[in-house]
Amino acid sequence: MAKAKLRPKKSSVSASKVAEVAGVSRSAVSRTFTDGASVSPETRAKVLAAAEKLGYHVNHLARGLIHHRSGIVCLIVAEMQTPFQASFVEAATRSLQDKGKVVMVLNTAGKPANVEAALRQTLNYRAEATVVVSGAPPRSLVETCIENGQRVILINRNDAIEGPQFVMIENEAAATEACFILRRAGCTRLAVVSSTAGTPSIVARETAFVDAAQAAGIEVLVNRAGPTGYASGAESARQLLAGANRPDGVFCVTDLLALGFLDAARIEFRLRIPEDLCVMGFDDIAAAGWLGYDLTTFRQPIAEIADHIAGMLEDEDGGPAQMHFPARVVWRRTVRP
């Protein structure tokens, strides 16, 4: 016997239809599905039974727009394929959904015209807020949101724009501590492995490390072999370790760079870690803790940041204009005790 094909209904069930089937007023249906509204247990039971029978669902978008709150939050993300960004998106979407928000993720890796069109969609749907995750989403997207009266939260960005709120990692403090840790481990020839991405957080870490070393009278080799990734870290190792005066202490501005650097140092140059070379990273991605790497790094408190953002969007007063989170060192085995 041929299976019957399921056809979508031409229209959704209305609240008026639920009221008709339940034998109650239209306002009674509205009160039943409004938190805190007054409705008798008998009426509520009738309405819920009718809604279940008809397959009725409340149009939260329409209801929210009446009160100027759609419940939609847009996440603008660059480099979603990197472990840190993926972890942040996972944590942020979970925290926001726990608060009853609907999350729309906008990937800026596409063509600029397509990204702009997608952002316009979030504005058309009256997203309550846009969260711009650290990376390289263009400033023009941020300005578009602000110009349309949208609330904007910037993560790990220092854009000189009036209007948004800022959630920052203390990158400079962590990079300064990295320099101190490597010096305390006995390293005298320091290098920083950065990238060509030039994002605010990467630039802040690189600059702070160089400044701290120079303040201690140590010149630093700075290497940017390519974009922020494993292959660039490995290439940086080839460039820095091939010379006679190679460094004995290296700070990588992300863990992905550090993992590539470590593999090249061990496999291609036969260096012992940390006896011959100390290496530090930043982010504490999952792979940093794998036995093959055991990387000493700095942990960004992803879950705390995500919960803070979700709380900010529930706060009618808006929360602080700026919030700073420390990056804590995670001790493993790539730095001498």
Automatic annotation (TrEMBL):
Transmembrane segments: none annotated. Gene3D superfamilies: 3.40.50.2300, lambda repressor-like DNA-binding domains (1.10.260.40). Keywords: DNA-binding, Repressor, Transcription, Transcription regulation. Residues 13-67 form the HTH lacI-type domain. The keyword DNA-binding applies. It comes from the Bacteria. It holds the Pfam family LacI. The keyword DNA repair does not apply. This is Substrate-binding domain-containing protein. It comes from Paracoccus broussonetiae.
